């Protein structure tokens, strides 16, 4: 089966990340006019096979006589029939300005067009908008070159800030069963300061935490750097601390703009070797096989041509050779990540930082469940009630928050007053109130409540058992936090959320006169907090060793409790929706 003259860009389904999910294409951008080759038909995923047959990797287009619409319909049909793809997930990491977004644009064109002449006579593929400054003519006139539609995720108007504002993935198909997912990330060394860098890193970790696996971490660098700054070392360290030491063999290095260093890493190589030699994770390979040198300037040349910029014959020859070298490196890069590298599945990401991250995702579900179990035990013991309160979690939009300053009106559930989750939408500012950002709490699901009947003694015994189980889990997690630092954490999220719940109950008691049940709950939550802090203090004095495997087993067991599992499921739906929104595909 051959490939014909066109391809389209659209949004790719996240069914591989979250099995069972479906997503329809929301955006298409035509790419026209050039024929591309395709890997042998009916192959499973065998990219080693491709090298044996000396065929270059290529993007897939509709076969002759096949329309774009037919192509899309066939793909949907394949999905309905469980058509399997192997996804190759590649995380791109680099300092602001190194050219991650340009690299993504460039590499799909290198894979599409063998020569720059083909690229110039065809239509360049632009996955995200391009903007750069170019000096032209004898008087060095400055021209701003732009290509592609505006994208709110790409900020070209604030120099020094990371151009890419949030993680976004770009997917293209090679062969018949393989999709490459390149994950663009906010750059390190943002001029807004270290706080913004830390926020960017947490966003990256949150994004990749939703992947089923990683194939490669691609560190993008410029050749001939005089130094690699502290931010680079910090980012690299945080990422490897999260993924664990076994990620070492999945780290690769890509150098941009290497035409001036004859397609070598230049003076950056000894600096990088020095950093890797001092790194906590030893034996990270840095050699020819996992290092790739490109020249993104040849892609900029292509875009400049599209903008009517003229170049002399010498420049044309330079960029012609540069394009060929970059095409060769692109195919070597693709062969390496698809063939030589072993997949690194998420269930092997074992580290203290990763365990802390997983626990943080569970804090709200666990503590809200504990609070509601307290409510139900109070109802049974104080009123002998056969009507208990049930948690009803539901999915929310990505930008949902709760304002802790705005007045909320509590609702009555069997004489228990409960604050509803009044959702606010927050972008650069709140669209529902005038309160500042630090008065808003981000939430990834909404809680509603309803009354449930037919309660018996056996059911109450089960509630007590689950309450004890969750209480002990929170104490274990709190001790794990202090055991990893040997100090009480100033940003303990468990304690922070506990304080928030206690303050809510205190406000309700101040607001409502018939507050007997809420007052009992308020006292119980305070007692729970005191015991939590006592356990942490004892753990610090005992200097307990860290049993990481025990923590992972505990978190897995807790996540399977039905009351917790329902909340975690809607959190996964929330992340699935966000991942779908942040992904585009070149078909």
Automatic annotation (TrEMBL):
Signal peptide: none annotated. CDD domains: Ras_like_GTPase (cd00882). Residues 1-29 are annotated as: Disordered. PANTHER family: G DOMAIN-CONTAINING PROTEIN (PTHR32046), IMMUNE-ASSOCIATED NUCLEOTIDE-BINDING PROTEIN 10-LIKE (PTHR32046:SF11). This is G domain-containing protein. It comes from Rotaria sordida.
